[in-house]
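Trying the structure run again after the queue cleared.
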Amino acid sequence: MPFVNIWMREGKTPEHKKAVSDAVYEAMREVLKVTEDDRFHQIHDQPAENMVQDPVYAGVPRSGDSVFIQLYFTKRPTEMKLRLFDAIVANLQHLASVGPDDVYINALEPDPVNWWISGREVDPKTGFDKRMADAAAEAQ
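Done. C-alpha coordinates:
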Protein backbone atom coordinates (compact mmCIF):
# COMPACT_ATOMS: atom_id res chain seq x y z
CA MET A 1 0.00 0.00 0.00
CA PRO A 2 2.48 2.66 -1.07
CA PHE A 3 1.56 6.29 -0.53
CA VAL A 4 2.87 8.80 -3.04
CA ASN A 5 3.22 12.56 -2.76
CA ILE A 6 3.88 14.44 -5.98
CA TRP A 7 4.75 18.12 -6.04
CA MET A 8 4.74 20.21 -9.21
CA ARG A 9 4.25 23.83 -10.17
CA GLU A 10 0.68 25.01 -10.23
CA GLY A 11 -0.98 25.50 -13.58
CA LYS A 12 -0.50 21.98 -14.92
CA THR A 13 -3.54 20.52 -16.66
CA PRO A 14 -5.57 17.69 -15.15
CA GLU A 15 -4.34 15.52 -18.06
CA HIS A 16 -0.71 16.24 -17.17
CA LYS A 17 -1.32 15.44 -13.50
CA LYS A 18 -3.00 12.16 -14.45
CA ALA A 19 -0.10 11.29 -16.77
CA VAL A 20 2.40 11.88 -13.95
CA SER A 21 0.33 9.77 -11.54
CA ASP A 22 -0.04 7.04 -14.18
CA ALA A 23 3.73 7.04 -14.78
CA VAL A 24 4.45 6.45 -11.10
CA TYR A 25 1.66 3.90 -10.66
CA GLU A 26 2.66 1.85 -13.71
CA ALA A 27 6.25 1.70 -12.44
CA MET A 28 5.03 0.54 -9.01
CA ARG A 29 2.82 -2.11 -10.63
CA GLU A 30 5.72 -3.36 -12.74
CA VAL A 31 8.53 -3.27 -10.18
CA LEU A 32 6.93 -3.41 -6.73
CA LYS A 33 4.09 -5.66 -7.91
CA VAL A 34 1.46 -3.53 -6.16
CA THR A 35 -2.08 -4.74 -6.71
CA GLU A 36 -4.40 -3.19 -9.29
CA ASP A 37 -6.42 -1.36 -6.65
CA ASP A 38 -3.43 0.13 -4.85
CA ARG A 39 -3.13 3.76 -5.95
CA PHE A 40 -2.92 6.39 -3.23
CA HIS A 41 -1.42 9.56 -4.72
CA GLN A 42 -1.60 13.12 -3.53
CA ILE A 43 -0.71 15.78 -6.08
CA HIS A 44 0.37 19.09 -4.63
CA ASP A 45 0.18 22.19 -6.85
CA GLN A 46 2.84 24.64 -5.76
CA PRO A 47 3.21 28.31 -6.61
CA ALA A 48 6.56 28.92 -8.32
CA GLU A 49 7.94 30.59 -5.20
CA ASN A 50 7.30 27.38 -3.24
CA MET A 51 9.27 25.15 -5.62
CA VAL A 52 12.75 26.30 -4.66
CA GLN A 53 15.66 24.64 -6.45
CA ASP A 54 18.97 25.70 -7.88
CA PRO A 55 18.87 26.06 -11.68
CA VAL A 56 21.98 23.87 -11.97
CA TYR A 57 22.61 20.92 -9.66
CA ALA A 58 25.52 18.48 -10.00
CA GLY A 59 26.46 20.30 -13.20
CA VAL A 60 23.09 19.58 -14.81
CA PRO A 61 20.68 22.40 -15.75
CA ARG A 62 17.20 22.00 -14.25
CA SER A 63 14.00 23.59 -15.56
CA GLY A 64 11.16 25.14 -13.63
CA ASP A 65 8.99 22.13 -14.48
CA SER A 66 10.55 19.77 -11.97
CA VAL A 67 8.52 17.05 -10.31
CA PHE A 68 9.31 16.06 -6.72
CA ILE A 69 8.12 12.55 -5.82
CA GLN A 70 8.12 11.07 -2.35
CA LEU A 71 7.27 7.39 -1.99
CA TYR A 72 6.29 5.61 1.24
CA PHE A 73 6.38 1.81 1.25
CA THR A 74 7.70 -1.05 3.36
CA LYS A 75 11.35 -2.04 3.05
CA ARG A 76 12.50 -3.17 -0.38
CA PRO A 77 15.93 -4.32 -1.59
CA THR A 78 18.21 -1.62 -2.99
CA GLU A 79 18.21 -3.18 -6.47
CA MET A 80 14.39 -3.13 -6.56
CA LYS A 81 14.29 0.54 -5.55
CA LEU A 82 16.82 1.43 -8.23
CA ARG A 83 14.71 -0.38 -10.85
CA LEU A 84 11.64 1.47 -9.57
CA PHE A 85 13.37 4.85 -9.84
CA ASP A 86 14.54 4.05 -13.38
CA ALA A 87 11.02 2.93 -14.37
CA ILE A 88 9.44 6.08 -12.92
CA VAL A 89 11.87 8.32 -14.81
CA ALA A 90 11.32 6.44 -18.09
CA ASN A 91 7.54 6.49 -17.65
CA LEU A 92 7.50 10.20 -16.81
CA GLN A 93 9.42 10.97 -19.97
CA HIS A 94 7.18 8.76 -22.11
CA LEU A 95 3.76 9.51 -20.58
CA ALA A 96 4.13 13.07 -19.27
CA SER A 97 7.04 14.58 -21.24
CA VAL A 98 9.01 15.21 -18.04
CA GLY A 99 12.73 14.96 -18.72
CA PRO A 100 15.02 12.94 -16.45
CA ASP A 101 16.84 16.08 -15.30
CA ASP A 102 13.60 17.41 -13.80
CA VAL A 103 12.70 14.39 -11.67
CA TYR A 104 13.56 14.15 -7.98
CA ILE A 105 12.58 10.98 -6.11
CA ASN A 106 13.02 9.82 -2.57
CA ALA A 107 11.65 6.80 -0.76
CA LEU A 108 10.78 6.41 2.90
CA GLU A 109 10.40 2.91 4.32
CA PRO A 110 8.40 2.91 7.54
CA ASP A 111 8.17 -0.28 9.56
CA PRO A 112 5.17 -2.43 8.48
CA VAL A 113 3.56 -1.97 11.89
CA ASN A 114 3.10 1.73 11.00
CA TRP A 115 0.65 0.96 8.16
CA TRP A 116 -3.08 0.45 8.47
CA ILE A 117 -6.10 0.52 6.18
CA SER A 118 -9.44 -1.23 6.59
CA GLY A 119 -9.63 -4.53 4.72
CA ARG A 120 -5.88 -4.93 4.28
CA GLU A 121 -4.38 -8.18 5.57
CA VAL A 122 -0.68 -8.16 6.30
CA ASP A 123 1.41 -11.30 6.42
CA PRO A 124 3.21 -10.97 9.78
CA LYS A 125 6.21 -12.90 8.46
CA THR A 126 6.88 -10.57 5.50
CA GLY A 127 5.13 -7.31 6.39
CA PHE A 128 3.52 -7.32 2.93
CA ASP A 129 -0.14 -7.30 1.97
CA LYS A 130 -1.14 -10.97 1.69
CA ARG A 131 -2.17 -10.34 -1.94
CA MET A 132 1.46 -9.47 -2.76
CA ALA A 133 3.11 -12.85 -2.22
CA ASP A 134 5.25 -12.46 -5.37
CA ALA A 135 6.59 -9.08 -4.28
CA ALA A 136 7.26 -10.37 -0.75
CA ALA A 137 9.25 -13.30 -2.13
CA GLU A 138 11.30 -11.03 -4.40
CA ALA A 139 12.02 -8.60 -1.55
CA GLN A 140 13.34 -11.35 0.75
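The chain is about 30% helix and 20% strand. Worth checking whether this holds up in the mutant runs.
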